[in-house]
């Protein structure tokens, strides 16, 4: 009898644990097109470098109902009780936003911070469900509600969501706690060593997403990339390919896709949790930098209508050229970190994105390389509406632990989260699987499998990575083995900054062993804004100006496989690796705009080059 009771109790415990320890759900995309309740605002925090809230004094993970666990609401009803944690003023922090920029105590902090707030939920009908969606948390997030764990996510720059079981929700005063840990590790993505500030925290929007019992989780809608675009234009016959993923299996149910401006309203029957379809369309105005045409598309299922503005275009390579909508394009790019230097903080808002793109347009650029990690969604929305092409990248940066299978899986998770969120952005033309990774057979296999995965997830875009160069006085050779698998050959070159002097570019020659487009994914030099001297004085604005003048002279002599550049970088940015006491002080000074928002002399050199290139329709 006793054994049966134990077995029964074990089963009850197992079910209850399973019920509330939800694994991460499929990513819900287009959050702004859904029914949401924002949880942005003022939260409370506890700084916890010893992770006392997570481990007991024997450093064992605390049990779920341990009242000293920081995910549990402190109870101070009886004055005699011992309580050693709590969430209240003045320990307040803004969400979204990194913690480093909010209080001096956080500036260099790397460790755990507990975030807490309460929220009420509106009256919901029985069929509705609630998900908790985070735009990004850097780096590891453990999420708890009313003392129960919803799940854990790793990755500092990609979105994720967990369902909140209805049984767990209270009408008022839901106690939400997020453990955020931004410590760096050898076997994470990125790894220990990066040339950017390790901003920690809940760095992007947080929303409750209210859905029907079954709903569209995410979807893809792009112009078919196999059709010859010139023929399609001539015959005014286009094919749009789509896929729709439901949260749960449906039987013989209809989903309707509408593009009113194209006079399209199509019903598709779903049997299962996904449907793939094609739609023939006429009179499509293709998306391009000159005409960033977006169409209002709506996806209707189970009483919900999800709307999104989507552009249609074709991106491809032909030999050593990049073609947009069948025409050769030249990428007048600029690299961008997700940062507002004037406030030394992560960028996260629409206003931040609008300011960034105003500077990009002033530069006469038509492309941005969003380094070195997926940026917030406002950046992609701005690029879509402004007609700026985008290179988006996962932070497989420098010396990753390439021989570790678990690290490859982490990189694939971040790759899938990046692609799932942004695959409907016409402006996004290039997925990058990494930056300046040191050549070895293990590394090349690691990166090749990321490229394979990227193409499985999305065949409609180019895949690249910043490759390595074999520098030599006579000829700089690009024969990085990874170049066999990327669609374009991209390299970061700093002739005249890391080695040599700016005028060395005049005798530089380039040899690319692949018949593919060549793209300079970085080039740049440092200058302290406002520091003026003769051009041979390092760190002066004149040196940086000279560097860009010499680089452009070289660019003008490049062979026809040269298809563009994205110099490093639009704005000065924070880096703990940059410690000259006069010229750097924790800043990487390669920005064309300094940390006060002032344009340096080099900005105007590049602006002029891009104006000429735009006018020559290069
Ligand atoms: C590298 C790297 C950047 C870095 C830059 C620099 O190419 O990709 O992340 O900041 O060079 O040295 O400034």
From TrEMBL:
Residues 38-209 form the Glycosyl hydrolases family 2 sugar binding domain. Residues 1-23 form the signal peptide. This is Beta-glucuronidase. Keywords: Glycosidase, Hydrolase, Signal. PANTHER family: BETA-GALACTOSIDASE, BETA-MANNOSIDASE. One of its GO terms (molecular function) is hydrolase activity, hydrolyzing O-glycosyl compounds. Belongs to the glycosyl hydrolase 2 family. Residues 228-313 form the Glycoside hydrolase family 2 immunoglobulin-like beta-sandwich domain. It comes from the Bacteria. GO terms for biological process: carbohydrate metabolic process. Residues 318-613 form the Glycoside hydrolase family 2 catalytic domain.
């Amino acid at each position: 009898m006793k054994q049966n009771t134990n077995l029964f109790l074990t089963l009850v415990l197992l079910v209850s644990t399973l019920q509330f320890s939800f694994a991460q759900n499929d990513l819900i995309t287009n959050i702004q097109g859904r029914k949401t309740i924002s949880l942005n605002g003022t939260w409370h925090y506890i700084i916890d470098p010893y992770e006392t809230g997570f481990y007991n004094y024997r450093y064992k993970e605390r049990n779920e109902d341990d009242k000293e666990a920081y995910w549990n609401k402190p109870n101070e009803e009886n004055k005699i009780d011992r309580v050693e944690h709590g969430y209240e003023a003045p320990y307040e922090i803004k969400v979204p936003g990194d913690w480093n920029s909010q209080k001096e105590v956080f500036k260099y902090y790397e460790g755990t911070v507990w975030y807490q707030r309460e929220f009420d939920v509106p009256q919901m009908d029985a069929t509705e469900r609630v998900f908790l969606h985070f735009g990004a948390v850097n780096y590891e997030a453990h999420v708890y509600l009313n003392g129960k764990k919803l799940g854990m996510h790793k990755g500092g720059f990609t979105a994720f969501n967990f369902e909140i079981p209805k049984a767990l929700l209270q009408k008022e005063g839901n106690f939400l706690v997020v453990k955020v840990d931004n410590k760096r590790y050898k076997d994470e993505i990125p790894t220990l060593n990066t040339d950017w500030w390790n901003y920690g925290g809940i760095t992007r929007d947080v929303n409750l997403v209210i859905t029907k019992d079954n709903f569209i989780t995410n979807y893809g809608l792009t112009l078919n990339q196999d059709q010859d675009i010139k023929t399609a234009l001539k015959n005014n016959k286009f094919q749009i390919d789509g896929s729709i993923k439901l949260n749960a299996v449906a039987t013989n149910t209809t989903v309707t896709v509408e593009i009113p401006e194209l006079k399209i309203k199509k019903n598709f029957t779903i049997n299962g949790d996904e449907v793939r379809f094609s739609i023939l369309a006429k009179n499509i105005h293709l998306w391009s930098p000159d005409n960033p045409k977006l169409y209002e598309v709506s996806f209707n299922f189970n009483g919900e209508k999800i709307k999104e503005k989507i552009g249609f275009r074709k991106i491809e390579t032909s030999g050593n050229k990049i073609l947009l909508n069948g025409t050769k394009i030249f990428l007048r790019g600029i690299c961008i970190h997700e940062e507002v230097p004037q406030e030394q903080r992560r960028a996260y808002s629409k206003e931040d994105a609008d300011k960034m793109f105003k500077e990009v347009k002033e530069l006469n650029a038509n492309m941005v390389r969003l380094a070195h990690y997926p940026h917030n969604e406002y950046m992609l929305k701005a690029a879509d509406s402004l007609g700026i092409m985008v290179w988006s990248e996962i932070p497989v940066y420098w010396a990753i632990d390439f021989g570790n299978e678990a690290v490859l899986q982490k990189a694939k998770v971040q790759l899938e989260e990046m692609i799932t969120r942004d695959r409907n952005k016409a402006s996004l033309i290039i997925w990058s699987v990494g930056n300046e990774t040191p050549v070895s057979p293990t590394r090349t296999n690691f990166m090749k499998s990321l490229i394979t995965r990227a193409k499985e997830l999305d065949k409609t875009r180019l895949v690249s990575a910043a490759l390595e160069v074999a520098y030599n006085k006579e000829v700089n050779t690009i024969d990085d083995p990874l170049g066999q698998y990327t669609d374009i050959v991209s390299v970061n070159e700093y002739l005249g900054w890391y080695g040599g002097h700016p005028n060395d570019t005049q005798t530089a020659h380039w040899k690319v062993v692949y018949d593919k487009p060549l793209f300079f994914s970085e080039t740049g030099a440092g200058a302290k804004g406002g520091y003026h001297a003769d051009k041979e004085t390092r760190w002066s604005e004149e040196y940086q100006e000279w560097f860009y003048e010499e680089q452009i002279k070289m660019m003008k002599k490049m062979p026809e496989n040269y298809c563009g550049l994205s110099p490093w970088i639009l704005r000065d940015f924070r880096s703990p690796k940059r410690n000259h006491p006069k010229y750097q002080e924790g800043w990487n000074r390669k920005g064309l705009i300094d940390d006060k928002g002032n344009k340096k002399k080099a900005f105007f050199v590049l602006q002029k080059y891009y104006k000429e290139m735009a006018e020559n329709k290069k």
